[in-house]
Amino acid sequence: MFQLTPSIRLRRTPFSNRVEQAGATAFTVYNHMRLASFYESPEADYRHLKTAVQVWDVSVERQVEVIGPDALRLVQMTTPRDMSRMQDDQCYYIPMVDTDGKLMNDPVAIRLNQDRYWLSLADSDMLLYCKGLAAAGKLDVEVFEPDVSPLAIQGPKADELVARVFGEDVVKTRFFRHTTINFEGQDMILARSGWSHQGGFELYLDGSEYGEAVWDALFAAGEDLDVRAGCPNLIERIEAGLLSFGSDVTYAHTPFEAGLTKYCNLETVQGFLGRDALMKSKDPVRQIRALSVEGDPVPPINHPWPLLDTSGSVVGHISSSTWSPDFETNVTIAMVNRTHWDSGTKLTAKIPDRERTATVRSGFWI
């Protein structure tokens, strides 16, 4: 059995004590921080997430703050999504690309005002990259990591819990919009967002010293709602087609290969570094697809599983797969070649226990 070796380099979060008390059974490393994993089992947490409400410590989604007169210019340099019309209460999902048009991260950008943004990161270092762009471009901005740690409140009962703790008005917040709440005299951002398809919010804890008090307030208010500690659920996020940067898409892929075409405004946006490269790669030869894999539950995946055509040639690979109790199949995310990505195409998946039939779907499950 492998263990996570303790180290000061592996940072704890403002909620770590409460996460451990709640019964986290495993941890992974994400942005140099500890991300807690299963509390009961993936299947039990999945069912609870779909019926009640969970609180997730997702502090690992570290923020890069960009503030100053050139803040918008710097953020726009990193992404093909048009940031010019973003409002002060909006959140944008943005693919961040390098000069070759390859993905570097896919954060949620939060606009606080016209000169101030947070980039809520997936698992890759972007702080130094943004600092480098600011320095090289002699931009009038500050770039740093603020003491801001997201806490997700997810599930069908999330609205009720949030209303009890932060007030009835906050539940009026629209999807991918944010509002300001006050907790013990401290203003914080609360956004209607989260890495699940069950609905809910993400609280951007502003000040580590408030972490345990916020956690305790949510659990005290939600006892009758069956509130539990949780974490992003593998089954539910594959059903919803929520991509994992570093697993489903990597530095080797463009936004078009990741299926993020609608976030690439190449005709209207100027000033982002990968524009010329992306203009040449708008017609990808491979792309993310949803697949159903036959048979009983697949084993855990810790390396890509090849997909073969009828001649035995490799035409893609599976990056995420697990058994779905609701859909009674192995829900799967794969990168598939254009020649074989049409809905209904049958492929052979080379899974460690045996070869299985995988069928390309027209879309994800939820």
Task: Explain how this protein is built.
The protein is an alpha+beta fold and 366 residues long. It is 17% helix and 31% strand. It starts with 15 loop residues before the first helix and ends in a 6-residue tail after the last strand. The protein is globular, with a radius of gyration of 21 Å. The strands form 5 sheets. Strands 12-13-14-11-3-15 form a 6-stranded mixed sheet, sandwiched between helices. A 6-stranded antiparallel beta barrel has the order 16-19-18-17-20-21. The model has no long low-confidence stretch (mean pLDDT 97). The chain is built from 8 helices and 21 strands. A hairpin with a 2-residue loop joins strand 1 and strand 2. It has 3 domains: 16-59 and 147-238, Gyrase A, domain 2, CATH 3.30.1360.120; 63-144, Aminomethyltransferase beta-barrel domains (Alpha-Beta Plaits, 2-Layer Sandwich), CATH 3.30.70; 285-366, Aminomethyltransferase beta-barrel domains (Elongation Factor Tu (Ef-tu), domain 3). It has helices at residues 16-21, 42-49, 71-78, 127-136, 158-166, 211-221, 234-239, 275-279; strands at residues 27-30, 33-36, 53-57, 63-67, 91-93, 96-97, 103-105, 108-113, 116-120, 142-144, 148-154, 178-183, 186-191, 200-206, 227-230, 286-293, 305-308, 314-324, 329-337, 346-351, 354-360.
Outline:
With about 375 residues, the chain is an alpha+beta fold. It has helices spanning about 15-20, 40-50, 70-80, 125-135, 160-165, 210-220, 235-240, 275-280, and strands spanning about 25-30, 35, 55, 65, 90-95, 95, 105, 110-115, 115-120, 140-145, 150-155, 180-185, 185-190, 200-205, 225-230, 285-295, 305-310, 315-325, 330-335, 345-350, 355-360.
